[in-house]
Amino acid sequence: MVVESRLDLKVSDRLEILYHLFRGEKISPLIDKFDNHGVSGFQKFLWEKTVEFGIVCRGKNFDRKEITRKMTPTPVFQLQQRCTQSVYHCKGTQCIHSNPKCARKKIKEHVEAMAESIQEYIRIVKKRELF
Amino acid sequence: MTILRIGEVAIISYNYQEVEEFIKSICDRIDIRNDRLSFGRFEVNDQLALYLYGISVDNKNKSISWDLISRKTLGFIVIFDWEDKKILDAIKPIIDYFSRNFNVPIVIVASIKDKKDPPIPDKFFQPDGIPLSLNSRFTFGQTDDPESARNIMILLINMLIEKLS
């Protein structure tokens, strides 16, 4: 189910993300087009699509760790950025307003990890259809 | 006496051919045609008919009064050519206008040449489309293929039913 909030992107922005995604193009550069709320919306939308595609591909064997293990663990990322905030703050949704440069860096990495997962799910289903 | 109920659906594209192909795939023929509008009728039975209004937006010099056209519309089907990014960019403001101003289903169709060879496996978008918002979904389709056009119409009608239930 789609629940709309202030983080939500315009429908055309979502369409644009899918367009690049389904062409196998890198999508993190698109993030630069968005303001801070938009960046959080981008991340949220892509997470939802990644999970949806994961469920279509894996069924009940879907595990969100398949996606998150491609991402740098938050404590490691914080250490790399010399960030002293609590781990809880490093979600990109809060610090995107206080430290947008760092949050955008993290979100770009996450977005690429999610896009990679979606590409993988597409490849798996395509391959399955060949047999 | 039987009363005929009519449901209206707007089909929008930058390419009038796509609009006409789609209407013909559903209605068999175009009843009325002018430079901006194509019209087809699909009679479900003697009590229900769907009127399909195809609107081509390729003439940038003429503005369209969407608020007048859309007053009674059950939903929109917006078609763009998957291979033409310029068309996608051009159609985006229309999609946002519909989604902001009308509380009706919008099916956004990326038109492809061969429904058997979509860019991603159809398991990901058939039969329900890919949700983009509460009222809008994305799908691939072949506008000149009756089965594909029918699936798009069914998706729109299912979205309407979901809204009511």
Instruction: Report helical residue fraction of chain A.
Output: 55-70%
Instruction: Please count the beta strands of chain B (DSSP E, at least 2 residues each).
Output: 8
Number of helices in the DSSP assignment of chain B = 4
The string of secondary-structure elements of chain A, in order, is HHHHHH
| Overall morphology of chain A | globular
Please provide the count of β strands of chain A.
0
On the 0 to 100 scale, the average pLDDT of chain A is 90
What general form of chain B does the structure show? globular
Calculate the terminal CA-CA distance of chain A, rounded to whole Å.
Answer: 32 Å
Q: Regarding quaternary structure, how should these chains be classified?
A: heterodimer
Q: Can you tell me the CATH class of chain B? A: Alpha Beta
**Most extensive interface between two protein chains, with residue counts:** A-B, 21 and 21 residues
Output the CATH homologous superfamily of chain B. P-loop containing nucleotide triphosphate hydrolases
Gyration radius of chain A, rounded: 15 Å
Radius of gyration of CA atoms of chain B, rounded to a whole number: 15 Å
